[in-house]
Design a protein that fits this description.
four-stranded antiparallel β-sheet, 2 domains, seven-stranded mixed β-sheet, 361 residues, Aspartate Aminotransferase, domain 1, 12 helices, Aspartate Aminotransferase, domain 2, 38% helix, alpha/beta
């Protein structure tokens, strides 16, 4: 089984002797609506394009992104998912001493370690519901720090940093010559605008990462983008594989960036289901359920007589995968994360959870 991330359906099928089709995956935070229906037809119609090379730097997509989010095409770079861009950007920046949150997305730490970078961890506290205390964060930003990475909303906790606070952090970091990366992989699921993209006009020490994989449910295609100053973007182009985004992902991206109604429908549907799940889960004694701001729910099971691994295994045997968060730095075996799914799947998950908890009595 994949010990770093969710979504390993093939591994679960083998480990638990299940049919792949029977598995409901709550371990990966992907839009349960699925890709826009017209995407399948578009890719089918253009399948013959796999005989051609993709555009080396995804020029068409960069222009579409500039039209949608502002700036110029030269401020954008496309990646084989946002994760590729994390590794690429760190290679270009060559930081000596970086600060990241704990808990947060594990690939920041892995990317920094791959370059031999020294890391300082700003530990979020359970007593504060793992929310950022800006003044405490500032105390951890010493003069030696040259890179700060933030995930907004944070994975796995789901907590977000409002734009005024981001502004505060950027201003503080700029005075100290600290570069800031903000990963907004799940920002499209939010019901309020917290994106730092507009702040790029004022702060040249900022790079924003975005993902099309999560919101458009295309983890198999892989597509993400970054927005930054032209000098950093140019250096990233000098370091990257010339054909890092395949031609089908490029063509998919051109269609996906037009999907305003799909995004609107997604927010309404996800909001409805996450409230349903949240309200139901809150009824269980022993569960401390964090309010979901994105499309996943973070849960503290400390008051139950069961570990996260044990609960994950029990559910997996019933063909339901959830995320054991014990391998997140700053967490232990008392935390899980579940994706928000469609009602039919949410009910099946809750049914199995009811049975497990009933047998524990």
């Amino acid at each position: 089984m994949n010990k770093q991330h969710g979504g390993d359906i093939e591994g679960a099928a083998k480990k638990y002797n299940l049919c792949r089709e029977d598995i409901i995956d709550f371990s990966a935070n992907i839009n349960f609506i699925g890709p826009p229906p017209q995407l399948y037809q578009k890719l089918q119609n253009e399948l013959k394009l796999i005989e051609d090379y993709p555009q080396p730097n995804s020029e068409n997509l960069r222009c579409r992104l500039a039209q949608k989010y502002g700036f110029t095409a030269d401020n954008y770079i496309l990646g084989n998912g946002a994760v590729e861009l994390i590794y690429l950007l760190i290679s270009v920046l060559e930081p000596d001493y970086s600060l990241i949150l704990a808990p947060t997305f594990s690939e920041y730490e892995k990317a920094l370690n791959s370059k031999g970078n020294d890391i300082k961890y700003h530990y979020l506290n359970k007593s504060n519901k793992f929310k950022i205390d800006v003044e405490k964060l500032k105390k951890d930003i010493s003069q030696d720090i040259d890179l700060c990475i933030l995930c907004n909303p944070n994975n796995p906790t789901g907590n977000f940093i409002d734009r005024d606070t981001i502004f505060n952090i950027l201003k503080y970091n700029k005075k100290r010559g600290i570069y800031t990366i903000i990963d907004e992989a799940f920002v499209d699921f939010m019901n309020r605008d917290i994106s730092a993209v507009s702040l790029l006009k004022k702060y040249d020490n900022l790079f924003v990462l975005r993902s099309l994989t999560k919101i458009f449910a295309i983890p198999g295609l892989r597509l993400g983008f970054g927005i930054g100053q032209k000098n950093i973007i140019n250096k990233m182009y000098d370091h990257k594989d010339p054909w890092n985004v395949n031609i089908m992902a490029q063509r998919a991206g051109e269609l996906l960036l037009k999907q305003k109604q799909y995004i609107k429908h997604t927010k309404i549907s996800v909001n409805k289901e996450k409230k349903f799940l949240y309200n139901y889960l809150k009824k269980y004694k022993g569960l401390d359920v964090y309010y979901p701001n994105a499309n996943y729910i973070f849960i503290d099971i400390s008051d139950l007589n069961i570990t996260a691994q044990h609960l994950c295994n029990k559910l997996a045997k019933r063909a339901i995968l959830i995320r054991d968060c014990s391998n997140y730095r700053g967490l232990n075996n008392n935390f899980i994360r579940i994706a928000v799914k469609k009602r039919e799947h949410n009910l099946k998950f809750l049914e199995q959870l009811d049975r497990i908890f009933h047998n524990m009595k």
